[in-house]
Amino acid sequence: MGIKRYFATQDNTISNAFKANLKTRGTGSNMGASDILEAFVIHGQTSASIDSNSAEQSRILLQFDMNQVLDDISNGVIPSSSVDFRLKMFNAPHTDTTPLSYSLDVIMLTQSWEEGRGLDMDNYTDLGVCNWVSSSKGTFWGADPANPATAITGGYFETGENASASFFFSGGVEDLDVNVNFAVDRWRSSGSAYNHGFILKHTDEVIAGDKGTFFTKKFFGRNSEFYFKRPVLEARWDSSRKDNRGNFLVSSSLAPGSDNMNTLYLYNNVRGQLKNIPSLTNDIIYVKVYSGSATAPTTNSVLLGDGELELSLHTVTGGIVIENGDALAGVYSCSFATTASEDYLYDVWSNAAGTEYFTGSFEPKTLSALELIYSDEYITDITNLKSSYIKGQKPRLRVFPRRKNWNPNIYTIATADIEPEVIEDAYYRIHREVDNLEVVPFGTGSAVKDYTRMSYDVSGSYFDVDTNYLEPGYSYKIQFVYYLQGEYRQQPEVFKFRVEEPAP
């Protein structure tokens, strides 16, 4: 499951808007305990002057625990590289006006702050910190402690390059989903102590009055009763692993070089644990491929290569698997192409001295061109799905797709006797059943990391579900989409399971 969410540890709305009397501003008010966060700019309510000094504003503060992120990276829960970190906030419907066509800036804060316990977002009666003028008790925003006159209002944040991002709202009611790698990368390199979170505010041109009034955008806060609507820092990465032992393709002039390559895996399982092979130098392993019958290999090794049709190697070099910067203990792979079209081929893995560790087998398939492109239809099953899981469990679900027309007498159920189809680009999503809320979307598209793409091996497709991600006490639905012949095709089957609280 190439996705991990971190909930906000602090959030607050700060404002310099006028109170109901339209005479005094609520600059000393705190809204840290509210379940709503709000961003707006108002011009001309009490004065004809339209500029940044007279503007009434509301801004949002957010902070996440970077120590959790760093711990998960060091423990291999998420990769150390090739990860997109995204700030996600969810629109809160309201009865006030909703502005159109505007952007909110997401900027790194440069000063620590206190969340506070205020609630009143209407009349600004709950005084406390942090607020528009103070980050914490007795501390002004950006002020030199020896010179309070240097105080900044509205938050103290970065103004240089690579310190902010922007998200555009066309209809005003969209959720926010913005890449914040710029911030996470700096916090990782500088240390979590420099993590003061984000401030969300309207753009400077809106604040200056060039675009008029933008009232109001509201999001659900971390205190919201809606579990999946709370602000999150979301890590996304492609966690799929493609083992071609079950769909090994013979090199063909019909395919480009990269598509002629196949990857095989070796899993060194010792007493139920994956462990490195101790006698390998620098974790390098060597692979030869032999022709053979259904029962045993021959002594004839076949020629291998790098994807082109000119093959010249009898041995290819493999090594320990590196996924997103992390070495996987006991997992090795090698990639190669071959034109050998025997019914059975055998892969033999050894060290530099020729000590053999493992002999596997596979049945290569020949690529052919069809005069007509036909529409493949599949029936999909999850062979090991349970009706319920305890929160904290991480089941690996086995997905069994087969062609719908494989046998005219069987239409609904795939069995273990049927060889599974390997669909290289298959994705899943998870919905909450009670309200059809999309909890994990299909991770497809050019702007994402394919974070829900399934892995596959000789036994078919699979993916892991981290139930820590799901709110207990609810039932959830799984659906699939396959990328076939240049288009995404959603499959009709729906699979259900429930997540329960652990026993006390």
Give the beta-strand count.
Answer: 32
Rg estimate, integer Å: 28 Å
The number of distinct helices, counting runs of at least 4 residues, comes to: 4
Q: Tell me the fraction of residues in β-strands, as a range.
A: 35-45%
Helix content: under 10%
Q: What does the overall shape look like?
A: elongated
Structural class: mainly beta
- Biggest sheet layout: 7 strands, antiparallel
Q: Can you give the mean pLDDT?
A: 91
Please mark out the parts with pLDDT under 50 across 5 or more consecutive residues, or reply none. 408-412
Please explain how this structure is put together.
With 504 residues, the protein is mostly beta strands. It folds into 3 domains: 3-236, no CATH class; 244-362, Tailspike Protein, Chain (Beta Complex); 378-500, Sandwich (Immunoglobulin-like), CATH 2.60.40.1930. Helices cover 5% and strands 36% of the residues. It has 4 helices and 32 strands. Strand 30 and strand 31 form a beta hairpin. The longest helix is centred in the middle third of the chain and has 10 residues, at 181-190. The model is unreliable at 408-412 (pLDDT under 50).
